[in-house]
Amino acid sequence: MTVQDPQLFTDAFRAALTDAEFATLLKERDFSLQFVLTGGSGTAFLLDSDGVHDGAPRPASLRLEVRPEALHLILLGRLGVTRAIVDRSLVAKGPVPRVRQLADLLPPLGRAYAQLAPAPSGA
Amino acid sequence: MIATTTTAVPNAPTLSDLRALNEAAMPSLFQLPPEVEELRDEVRDFAQTVVKPRTLANDLAPADEFDWEMVEAGHRLGLLRLTMPKDLGGRGMGVLGVAVAMEEIASVCASTALIFGASLLGQTSVLFSGDQQLQARFLPSFLGDRPVLACNAITEETAGCDLLIPEHAELAEDVMTARRDGDHFVLDGVKRFITNGKVAEWAAVFANIEGNPGATGLTVFIVPLDSEGVTRGAVADKMGYRACLGTTLTFEDVRVPEENIVFGEGGGWNYLTVQSNQARSIVAAISTGVARGAFEIAKEWAGERVQAGKPLYEHQFTARKLAEMSSKIEASRLLYLQAAHQADNMLPAPVYGPAVAKMYADRAAIEVAEEAMSIVGARGYCREHAVEKLVRESFGARIYEGTPEVLALAITGALYGRRL
Predict the structure, then answer these.
(1) Which residues numbered 67-106 in B keep a CB inside 8 Å of some CB on A?
(2) Which one of A80, A85, A103 has the shortest CB-CB distance to B347?
(3) Using an 8 Å Cβ cutoff, are A86 and B348 in contact?
(4) Cα B396–B113–B290 angle (5° rounding)?
(5) Cα–Cα–Cα angle for B169, B232, B161, nearest 5°?
(6) Residues B83 and B47 in one domain
(7) What is the DSSP letter of B378?
């Protein structure tokens, strides 16, 4: 798999939901994230406390339009959400306070993703 | 000769009262959140009871006088920490809340609105960065008893619009330089017309990393203004906006630690466009406030002043003017509310809506203020009359945060899909 493969993200997010603490956090905050991968396939999927769903089955509390390579770096902690927004590799649509809450949600997603992500080239 | 008299129209509602009456009958499509309505009412009271009585004196004062007492009263209300999250001790407002607050203050004094607005703009880079270390160093001073101001330092002698249009980056001339020296950068250059520069504690300074052509290496540095090598110069003797001080800031070999960079080396342009799109709806709100302030003066006068046996507002030409003025104010407000709402629900904020709102509201403010002075007549042309000041202030917002020419490029850039 490459970082361009949407399934890498959905697999990682499903794995993250096995962490009960993370699933509870999503549920308590009534938080759902719709990811739209830009610059290619336009693949969309939605993450909520119930799972990862294809497409956009319901309105999400935050819609993240993001380039796969930027999402890859964000999940690995190599690119901050704010930097990604400022350089427009990420567009966040939804209430700004929700965007701030991403700081709490990204670490568990990142840990799961790091288990599956391809090693950096040259490593 | 026709005798002139005046007579008051009893219980005539203000434009704000009228809107509230209409909304009670039929809710607006655009409902302000309760916390924003509450803020608006608090700030309206502050504007009417604290700012308005001091407006004339502040306008007529020497260019370098600054009304700290008024700022302190605004600070007690939380105006200097409006956008700081509640968990950091702020009021947790977004662009919408700031814009609505600025309209209220600008309806009596646009320059007072800009004192608070410019400080909030300076804070934006630190807040938006999410950099907790920077936040811990530079935000707590806004929470103390003493009012503290920040500022944003972009404009230079030869680079104004060239620092607002990304396509001009390579063409910008003589931009302030930042030279790396170990783990510090050394800043050299001169910033011009910096609102709050005379009185701010620190500035978000935009400088070009040495070696990059023009301003292609534009970078944001947070610089305490008591740093060695910083000189606060003379205050510009402006036509309007006299309560806020626009100052030259000179930087000579000013050493700034690299951890004071926000958004990384070369991140200045990307941040600047994000910031501008947020700020433009707020400036549109300031223009809306100026127009509203001038309109209310003209409306009151047209209700009192009797010519040819009837009040001015019953004369068709004046009625037409008043109707068009109020229409422009309502349109300006809807445009800025929409733009602010977008900015609070999309990061980065879109280009188009805020640019359209600012372009329309800035023009409307000039037109409404000019008509207001025309209705008031000779009195309105005199320095001691509030409408004369609002006429002068109406021209100010066309210059800062994007001139009509810069806005036109932003709007057409969006229309043709170059910059969304």
Answers:
(1) 85, 92, 94
(2) A85
(3) yes
(4) 55
(5) 20
(6) yes
(7) G
Distance CA B306, CA B199 (A): 47
CATH classification of the domain holding B122: 1.10.540.10
Contacts of A100 in chain B (CB under 8 A): 85, 130
* CATH number, residue B399: 1.20.140.10
Which domain covers residue B126, as residue numbers? 34-143
Chain B residues closer than 8 Å to A91 by CB: 346-348
Looking at the structure of chain B, the number of domains it has is 3
Residues B247 and B355 in one domain: no
Q: Which chain A residues contact residue B263 at CB under 8 A? A: 82-83, 86
Cβ-nearest to A94 among B128, B271, B345: B345
Same-domain status, B12 and B40: no
Instruction: Say which of A82, A91, A100 has its CB closest to residue B346.
Output: A91
Residue B287, C-beta contacts closer than 8 angstroms, at least 6 positions apart? B106, B332, B358, B361, B362, B364, B365, B394, B397
Q: Which of 86-105 (A) contact B at CB < 8 A?
A: 86-88, 91-97, 99-100, 103
| pTM over 0.90, yes/no | yes
B166 touches chain A (CB under 8 A): no
In order, the DSSP letters of B147-187 are ---EEEE---SS-SGGGT-GGGGGG--S--EEEEETTEEEE
Query: In 3-state terms, chain A is what percent helix, strand and coil (to 5)?
Result: 45, 20, 35
Tell me how close the Cα of A57 comes to any Cα of chain B, in angstroms: 21
**What angle separates helix B268-304 from helix B316-343, to the nearest 10 degrees?**
150
* Chain B hits for A99, Cβ within 8 Å: 347
Pairing relationship of beta strands B246-257 and B230-235 according to DSSP bridges? antiparallel
Kindly report the number of other CB atoms within 10 A of residue A110's CB atom.
Answer: 17
Q: Which helix (H) or strand (E) holds A36?
A: strand A33-37
Domains and CATH numbers, chain A: 6-115 (3.30.1050.10)
Does the distance separating the beta carbons of A99 and B274 come in below 8 Å?
no
Please report residues of A whose CB lies closer than 8 A to that of B130: 80-82, 100, 103
Tens-digit pLDDT profile for chain B (420 aa)?
Answer: 344 455 566 678 888 887 777 776 666 777 899 999 999 999 999 999 999 999 999 999 999 999 999 999 999 999 999 999 998 899 999 999 999 999 999 999 999 999 999 999 999 999 999 899 999 999 999 999 999 999 999 999 988 888 888 888 899 999 999 999 999 999 999 999 999 999 999 999 999 999 999 999 999 999 999 999 999 999 999 999 999 999 999 999 999 999 999 999 999 999 998 999 999 999 999 999 999 999 999 999 999 999 999 999 999 999 999 999 999 999 999 999 999 999 999 999 999 999 999 999 999 999 999 999 999 999 999 998 999 999 999 999 999 999 999 999 999 999 998 765
> Tokens standing for B216?
């292609």
Query: What ipTM was estimated for this complex?
Result: 0.87
Candidates B129, B344, B347, partner chain A, best to mutate (most A CBs within 10 A): B347
